[in-house]
Amino acid sequence: MRRFLSFVIIFFMVFFINCATEQEAIQTSNILKEKCDAPIWNVGDYWRYRYSNMKEWQYTVERIEEDSYIVDDYYGSYKNCFDRKTLRLLAYIDHKGDKKAVSSPFYIDFPIHVGKKWKKMFTSPPSRGSSLDINYLNEYEVISHEDATVPAGTFKAFKIELKQTNYGGKFASGKAYYWYSPEIKSIIKIEYEDIPYWTGFRNYALIKFELKDKGLPTPELKLFPQKVDTTPKPQTPLPETPKISAPATPPPRTNFVTVSGTSANIRSGAGNEFSIVTIVKQGDKLTFLGEYGEWFNVRLENGQEGWINSRFVKE
């Protein structure tokens, strides 16, 4: 009888230990499925996005270097240099091949998983009327792994919260959220929570893409009505097969913006770190050529081209 009871006890002990081990293995497997490393982009991969104001742009991988991806922006005047390990925008590249460093807050500290946190301090050039650099503390947290819906479809994505604290002349902070999809190998949308803080920035989302290695087709594109305006605005469609060539100035459009401030700087690139090429005054009309973030690419009446911050103009 004692032998029988000992056998029963041993049997149940082994049974529960095996069950616990199996359950732990399943939980570990589920956790591993929700982790991901940095993606590998391929030449020809492209992602097309649309801002909340219905304007669009497209990134196409042009070439791959040792530590970076060189990406063509179809409507931009510059190519973009992205870090291969974090997908952070490092620099703009002009038609001469010269790089201008930039400080983009949106990047990913791979590998990521829900609950991961990291932080980084950024420094940007002085703002108008100041001689001091501005420091920003960016704090990141992966808060969920969820279904994210954009015009291009619904995809599993990591939702990342960005809290930015501005240590400039006026202490302030703001939050933004962005969704990274391992399937799409890119950020698929960005939303800003504190709009007054993120002046000049707009929400955007993925509307079309193509990945060369996976052969993923883009779902049927959901079209949105274009913004109605009394001024004719002929659209220059993006090619289905993106061009891979040296950046060129987009064709003129009959779309104008007017300088609303007393005066404003026209810079050689989309950022305060670029040199001032000229100054415009209130009431001047500028031909709109394209945009990058909060910056408008414009042409003056004398034919000169440059970039102006969108907060100094009205449409």
What is the CATH domain class of the largest domain? Mainly Beta
List segments where confidence is low: pLDDT < 50 over at least 5 consecutive residues.
24-33, 217-236, 238-254
Secondary structure: helix percent = 10-25%
The CATH topology of the largest domain is given as YmcC-like fold
CATH architecture of the largest domain: Beta Barrel
Largest sheet: 12 strands, antiparallel
Radius of gyration over all CA atoms, rounded:
25 Å
Strand content: 35-45%
Q: Looking at the structure, what is the overall shape?
A: globular
Instruction: Please state the structural category.
Output: mainly beta
Number of domains: 2
Question: Residue-averaged pLDDT, rounded?
Answer: 78
Strand/helix succession: HEEEEEEEEEEEEEEEEEEE
Question: What strand line-up does the widest sheet have?
Answer: 6-5-4-3-2-1-12-11-10-9-8-7
Number of distinct helices: 1
Distance between the termini: 92 Å
Using DSSP, what is the number of strands?
19
Plain-language structure description:
With 315 residues, the chain is mainly beta. It has 2 domains: 165 residues, YmcC-like fold; 59 residues, SH3 Domains (SH3 type barrels, Roll), CATH 2.30.30. The protein contains 1 helix and 19 strands. A 12-stranded antiparallel beta sheet has the order 6-5-4-3-2-1-12-11-10-9-8-7, with no helix packed on it. It starts with a helix and ends with a strand.
In short:
The protein is mainly β and 315 residues long. Helices cover 10% and strands 42% of the residues.
List the helices and strands and how they pair.
Blueprint: H1 2-33, E1 46-51, E2 56-64, E3 68-73, E4 79-83, E5 89-93, E6 99-101, E7 117-124, E8 134-150, E9 153-166, E10 172-181, E11 186-192, E12 204-210, E13 256-259, E14 263-267, E15 276-281, E16 285-292, E17 295-299, E18 305-309, E19 313-314
Antiparallel strand pairs: 1-2, 1-12, 2-3, 3-4, 4-5, 5-6, 7-8, 8-9, 9-10, 10-11, 11-12, 13-16, 13-19, 14-15, 16-17, 17-18
